[in-house]
Amino acid sequence: MVKITIIGASGTIGKNVAFKLAKEDQIHEIVLFSRKTSNERVKGEIRDMYDALSADNIDVTLTPSYDYEDIRGSEIVLITSGTPRKQGMSRLDLAVPNAKIIEEYARNIAVYAPDCIILIVTNPVDVMTTIALEASGFDKSRVIGLGNHLDSLRLKTMLAKHYNINSGEIHTRVIGEHGDHMVPLLSSTTIGGIPLKYFVEDSDLDIHDLVKSVKSAGNKIISKKGATEYGPAYAISNLIATIVNDSHKILSVSTYLEGEVEGVYDVSLGVPVILCKRGVQTIVPVKMAEDEKLDFFEAARAVKRCTYKIKDVLEL
Ligand code: NAP
Fold first, then answer.
1. Is the pLDDT of residue 85 over 70?
2. CA–CA separation, 75 vs 241, rounded Å?
3. In this structure, which topology does domain 2-145 adopt according to CATH?
4. pTM of the full structure
5. What span, in angstroms and rounded, lies between the C-alpha atoms of 152 and 183?
6. Which end of the chain is more exposed for a tag (fewer CB within 10 A), N or C?
7. Is 174 within 8 Å of 290 (Cβ atoms)?
8. Phi and psi of 16, rounded to 5°?
């Protein structure tokens, strides 16, 4: 039986993930951790969730908390706290205030849940992954960020809709930054096992349009409804279910690189990893087309620049 903690639980992503994870068989307790000022709101969310879960005969313990003692024994601690991105705002604009929040939470997690895996959602997620890694002092296999898995799901959906094919037939992947410098890996995309470049020979698929749409997908949702919620919540749930069930799936997560992919080092970026109960088992040294490689290097430069700036401010 598994215990999970969600920090920033009163937020849009936090509460949606909690409700989704409550339905996972292996998870017996979810701590919905928030600032003290949000505790009453979290209690209200929990009562509402219990009513819904009861309709499905699901018994799980949902614990509202602002006391770090309650996170002890958590296998995974998810951090979703931070200022949400407003329309037109880049994820990098959020970096300084959010880095301070992440630093403080990561230090406390290291004290109260020293054996857990930290999963970062707060943007800019690739920068925040490095901040959490350094502040916690954990091995890099146990500090990961969500970003490119969500981008990969968006790309998968767009391809499935374009061809009117079951999305299970599409295997695709986005790597790099969860942001403007994301790199859709079209060279490793297959549909029904057929490489995309052969599949689209007679098609009207506009690859440039597709890539633009994936990059702007988050902003488009925010411009229409103010926030993204179901997509991130389900993407997070994929990662957590893979870890909890020790599934060894290959998923794109942000992880600190030391030369494993195209020699890129000293920066956290989304890359394919084999994910298991211990966190990242292996970083997959994926090969890319020449233009993808250049974009990946550009992503590394951009995220590294921002990470260094933030570390200077935080004196890390
Ligand atoms: P939200 O609804 O505004 O929730 C954010 C939560 O952060 C708040 O409910 C609050 O939680 C906490 N918080 C706010 N200000 C804080 C402060 N000064 N100190 C400590 N905690 C504070 O935002 P959201 O839509 O859930 O998004 C959360 C984060 O995830 C954002 O950074 C967003 O950009 C990011 N995001 C990432 C992805 C991805 O793929 N990586 C996708 C979507 C969103 P409590 O009061 O409960 O503590």
1. no
2. 12
3. Rossmann fold (3.40.50)
4. 0.96
5. 10
6. N
7. no
8. -65, -40
Q: What CA–CA distance (Å, rounded) separates 33 from 6?
A: 6
Amino acid found at 5: T
Question: What pairs with residue 52 in β-bridges?
Answer: none
Q: Which of 80, 3, 79, 16 is nearest to 45 (CA)?
A: 16
What are the backbone angles phi and psi of residue 79, rounded to the nearest 5°?
-115, 115
Structure tokens at 127: 């920068």
| In the chain, domain spans | 2-145, 149-314
The CATH number of 149-314 is: 3.90.110.10
Token look-up 């997620």 returns: 125
What CA–CA distance (Å, rounded) separates 39 from 109?
19
Is 162 annotated as catalytic?
no
What residues are in contact with ligand 1 under a 6 Å CB criterion? 8-14, 34-35, 38, 80-85, 98, 101, 121-123, 125, 146-147, 150, 178, 227-228, 232
**Cα distance between residue 304 and residue 131, in whole Å:** 12
Paired with 258 in beta bridges are 265
Helix axes 230-244, 148-163, angle to 10 degrees: 110
Residues in the chain: 316
Tokens of 57: 């005969």
CA distance 172 to 154: 10
Q: How far apart are the first and last CA of the chain?
A: 36
Q: Tell how strand 279-283 and strand 265-276 pair up.
A: antiparallel
Structure-token pair, residue 313: 């401010």
At 256 the pLDDT is 98
CA 225 to ligand 1 centroid distance, Å: 16
List pLDDT tens digits, range 192-226. Answer: 999 998 987 666 788 889 889 999 999 999 999 99
Q: Is the pLDDT of residue 84 over 70?
A: no
Pocket test for ligand 1, best of 38, 80, 102, 253 (most atoms within 8 A of CB): 80
